[in-house]
Amino acid sequence: MYADTPDSPPRRDKGKAPALPTLPTEHTPLLSDSVTSSRTRSIADNDEERLIAPTRQSSFRSILLSVFCVSLSLCVLLFVLLALLAYSYGSGASREAPDTLIRRSLVLRGPDRVDVLNISYTDGIWLRVEGRVGVDAGAALGVNPSLDDGVFKDIWKSVGRWGVERVENITVNLSTVSIHSEHGHLADISFPPSTLPLTVNPPQDFSWLTPMSVPVLFKPTNDSKLLARFIRDTWRDGVVNVRAVVDEAVVSVLHGRFHLTREDVSSTVRIALPPLPPLDQVPVTLLSFLIQSTPTNLILSGNATIENPVPPHLNVRATLPTLPFLVSLPANDSSVPVANVTTAPMTLSYPNITMSISGTVLPIRSTGQAALSRFLSVYLQAEPNPILISSPFLPDLQFPALFPAPIPKPQVLRNVTIRNMFLKYHPDGNTMLASGTVYGRAVLPKGIQVGLDVKRLFPDVLVFDGEVPSEEEEEEEEEEEDSGEQGIPHLPHVPHPRLPHISDLPRIPIPSLPLPTVIPSLPSILPKPHVPLPVFPIGRKHRPSRAHSPPPKPSLPDPLPPRAFAHIRPEDWLPTICTPVAGDGKEGTTVEVEAKIVDVPLEVLPGRDKEFRSFVGKVIFSNKGALAGVQGTAAVGVHILGLPVGEGEGSGEMELVGLPFAGRVMVGKGSAF
């Protein structure tokens, strides 16, 4: 028996003796069966493991391959499903024309503000345009919800909306946009790439639009006639109808990871404009102006307001830099340039736009003097004048406009009278002639501070028995005549009594008287009476010139004014004496004008013989003479200091016609007949 060694572990099975091992003897074989069997089992196990290991490896590989194939199939299937889903969303949009797709999905409002940054003769006009923009991707892809959608279609649309929300926005990069009308190419527009937000199922109002500010380069065509026609048609019809053409459009999504390129994209743009007045009827109010003479030129400056034609609910704001313009006057089928003006920087506001203008008058050619004379005459008659405005950027494009009339109406000719007036019969005994000195004062409207020299005068005068009747008196007399014709029966005509003619006297025998034996002889040459001429004040005297034809003869007023009995109109221009005088500071240049009339026919008005005889009777039988009123229009030939005239284009003398005047004349007994 073996004793327990100290290193042997304690027994765990208490109460039961363990089996003792058999001790080897000389008959015991060197290799026992147990050892042989264990070795045999070990060898067999190794062989079995060698056979099972490849089987396990192949099975693992099969599992990996199966997992990979299944995953790949799922990925392919998922990709196909996503592709089919994307195609289902995009197929409808891809089949539609770009024009229709843009009109349905792109929403623009504005412009809310337009700032002109720079203007270049070669590059074009740089603008900064502010507006609101949005892309309704739900309308473009057809994923916006609808009450008629079923369950599966609603799920399909929900997935589409979810995908659009993940994309968030797109970046659009366009090549140069060409704008065309039905008549041809109008302009090219260029702007940088723009990021547009995507929206699905937007509200009915425009609160979902995103404000944007984009720099734009606008380069109009050089065909000014085409542009003028387009602007006139657009302004008249109230509709902007153009076609925008883009050679290439690139749309990027997911921060540039995917790109979609379309070529030859075109879209029709039709924008309805608010009601606009005609271009030549836009209300313009001249607040102030100043015209000053220099030795070589006329300087212009002024302030005006223009009614903003854009309705205020559109809330369009814009700023304009300093802009040059050319002002021309219409003349027959052409135009005459008269001034270069420049506007100060201004802001478009409501309800009126205020602008400041400065410039100079251009040299006037002989062909343009008539147009300028007509312009000045119409202005002094307090009537609006048609003008043409163009810009050096578009020299062939002219905009019609109206130059406002002065308010109140200027009274240019004042204190008109005829001094030393006397009447006499023509040698034929049928015509009465008038002579005297026409005196008056010419006062230009406030703001016209120019050197003025009146060289000639052509009056057209109506003579009244007494003061010139006022407008109220004329209206009252017309009403009396109308009521008299309606309420009082016509009386028989009673001829006006006249002095008996010698042939109407009875034949009475006249006793013969003895003739004198000596008849005194009369001298053959009678001395001419000395008639003193009026003394003219110091001034500039001008002689008449046959180079200027008289102005057209106006027709007599119909009906004739009450108490008017005669008409005086000379046959030619009258030379004048012009003397500058100091004004009151509240008006423009002031000068005194005198002109002498000699033997001008005094024509009795039709049906006014009675008034004429009554006036002559007052002159003959009154100790103080008779008061006569004068009223009419006058034409004057003036020279304006500093008005530039083209070389060899004449003196630059202007004719102002149709200037109204009124005054009074005292005709005494000694000055009549």
Automatic annotation (TrEMBL):
Instruction: Give TM regions.
Output: 63-89
Q: Which UniProt keywords apply?
A: Membrane, Transmembrane, Transmembrane helix
Annotated segments matching region Disordered:
1-41, 466-502, 536-561
Output this protein's name.
Answer: Pre-rRNA processing protein
The reply to whether GTP-binding figures as a keyword in the UniProt entry is no
Name the residue ranges with Low complexity bias.
Answer: 18-31
Mark out the compositionally biased spans (Acidic residues). 468-484
Pro residues biased stretches: 549-561
